[in-house]
Amino acid sequence: MQNWNQLTSQEQVSLLARPALADNQSLSQAVAAIIEQVAEHADDALIDLAKRFDGVELTELRLSKAAIEQAIATLSNERKAAIELAYQNIRTFHQAQRPQDVRIETSPGVICELKHQAIAAVGLYIPGGTAPLPSTVLMLGTTAQVAGCPRKVLCSPPNKQGVLAAEILYAATLCDIDEIYLCGGAQAIAAMALGTQSIARVDKIFGPGNSYVTEAKQQVSRIPGGPAIDMPAGPSEVLVIADQSANPDFVASDLLSQAEHGIDSQAVLVSDSVDLITAVKQAVEQQLSRLGRAEIARQSMQHGRYILTQDIAEAVEVSNQYGPEHLILQMNNPRSWLDKLTNAGSIFVGPWSPESAGDYASGTNHVLPTYGYARNTSSLGLLDFLRRYTVQELSQEGLRQIGPAIMTLADAEGLDAHKQAVALRLDALK
Ligand SMILES: NC(=O)c1ccc[n+]([C@@H]2O[C@H](COP(=O)([O-])OP(=O)(O)OC[C@H]3O[C@@H](n4cnc5c(N)ncnc54)[C@H](O)[C@@H]3O)[C@@H](O)[C@H]2O)c1
Ligand SMILES: N[C@H](CO)Cc1c[nH]c[nH+]1
Ligand SMILES: [Zn+2]
C-alpha cells in the first residue's frame, strides 16, 4: 500500500505508470516487418504468419457460409440467449446516439448543411490470442450495423483447430457480418489496410488487441491514403475508488476481472481507508485461487496498485491523473462525484454496477481508450462509424450578400483566383 501524500510528485508519476510493454523499438520494428511482408506477399504472407504465430496451417482465409452455420449449430440455447440479450441492449444504447443533421441559413440565401453518412467499409478486429471475445464482436458489429456501414469485415486469429469460436460467429451473424477471415495480429491489420487477394482494403479499422495489434493500427494509419483507426485500445485497466462503506469482495472481484485479461493489464485501488485496502488485499488472495486464469491474474496483480489517500476528493485527483479505461465508484453518494471526474473511458456507479456489466451486456461500448488517452479520446460510439460532411448552396441573393466579404478576405490572403471566382459571378448578376 502506498500513501499518496508521502510520495514526491515524481514518485506519484512513477506509481501511476502503465506496466512496461515490450521494448518499443523492437515492437515497432517487428510490426513494420510484418506489414512489409503482407504488402509484398499478400495472402501467402497471411497463411505463413498464421502458421508462425497461431500454429495453424490454413488453406482458406475466408470462412465459408457452411463453416459458419456448422459452428453455430453447436451452440447452446443458453449462450445464444445471452448473446441476444447483450446484442439488444447494445443496439438500444447505440441507436439512441444517432446525431441530428443540421440545415441552417447563415446569411439570407446561404444554406449550410451538416450531414452524416455511414463509413463504406469497416474492418473489425476481434482479439483471440488468449481468449476469444464474442463480446467485442457485439461492441463493434452492432455499432457498425446501427450506423448502416455497407461492408463489415471481421478478422480474428484462428484457434488451434483453424476456426473461430461459435460464439464469435453467432454474434457476427446477428450483426449481419458474413465477411469473416481467419487472420490475427499485426498481419490482420496490414491486410485490412493494404488489401490482399482475399481481403479487400477497408476505410477504417476498429478494435482492441495486444501490443502488436495496437502498434500495427498506429503504423497503418500513418500510410499516406491509409485507413483511419478508432483509437489506441490496449491492455485492459481498471481503477476503483472505494471508501470504508464498500464491500471488499465486490472491489476485489472488479480488480481481478481486469487483471485476468492479460499479464500487462493493470488494476488500481484508491481509497481513503486503510481497513478497506487491507480487506480488499485479503479478498483478492482468496478469490485468485478460484480463478481459471489465476496465473495470468496473479502476474497482472504484481503491477496492481493499492493507494491510500487522505480523502475521496484526493482519490478523485489520483484517478484524473491516471485517466483509467474503466473507473468504478464504490463509495457513499458516488453520483455526487461524477462532474469532478474528468478523465475516464467509462464510469461504473455504485456497488451494483460491476465492470463486467459494461464489458458484456448493459449496452455501453467496452472499446475504450487506455494508457491515459481517456483525457483526449472518447469511448467508442455510433459517431465513430459515421463520417460527417457539409453541403452548401448559395442563391444569387446569397452570393450578393457575402461575396464582397469573400473578395476582401481573398485580397488579404493574396489569392487572386479565389477573388475572381466571386467577382466573375457578381459581374454576371449585374
Ligand atoms: N481496451 C479495450 O477496449 C479492450 C477490449 C478487449 C480486449 N482488450 C485487450 O486486447 C488484448 C488481446 O490480446 P490477445 O493477445 O489475447 O489477442 P490478439 O488477437 O490481440 O493478439 C493475438 C495475435 O498476436 C500476434 N502475436 C502474438 N505474439 C506475437 C509475436 N511475438 N510477434 C508478432 N505477433 C505476435 C499473433 O498474430 C496472434 O494471432 C488484451 O491485452 C486485452 O486486455 C482490450
Ligand atoms: N474489459 C475488456 C475491455 O478492456 C472487454 C472485455 C471483453 N470481455 C470481457 N471484457
Ligand atoms: Zn473485461
From TrEMBL:
This enzyme's EC code(s): 1.1.1.23
Name of protein: Histidinol dehydrogenase
Name the encoding gene, please.
Answer: hisD
Q: Which reaction does it catalyse?
A: L-histidinol + 2 NAD(+) + H2O = L-histidine + 2 NADH + 3 H(+)
The UniProt similarity line reads: Belongs to the histidinol dehydrogenase family.
Task: Tell me which CDD domains the record gives.
Answer: Histidinol_dh (cd06572)
**Which positions are tagged coiled coil?**
58-85
Q: Which domain of life is it from?
A: Bacteria
| UniProt-listed InterPro entries | Ald_DH/histidinol_DH, Histidinol_DH_CS, Histidinol_DH_monofunct, Hstdl_DH
Question: What is the species of this protein?
Answer: Bowmanella pacifica
Keywords of this entry = Amino-acid biosynthesis, Coiled coil, Histidine biosynthesis, Metal-binding, NAD, Oxidoreductase, Zinc
Where along the chain is substrate bound?
S236, Q258, H261, H326, D359, E413, H418
A GO molecular function held by the record = histidinol dehydrogenase activity
Pfam families (UniProt xref):
Histidinol_dh
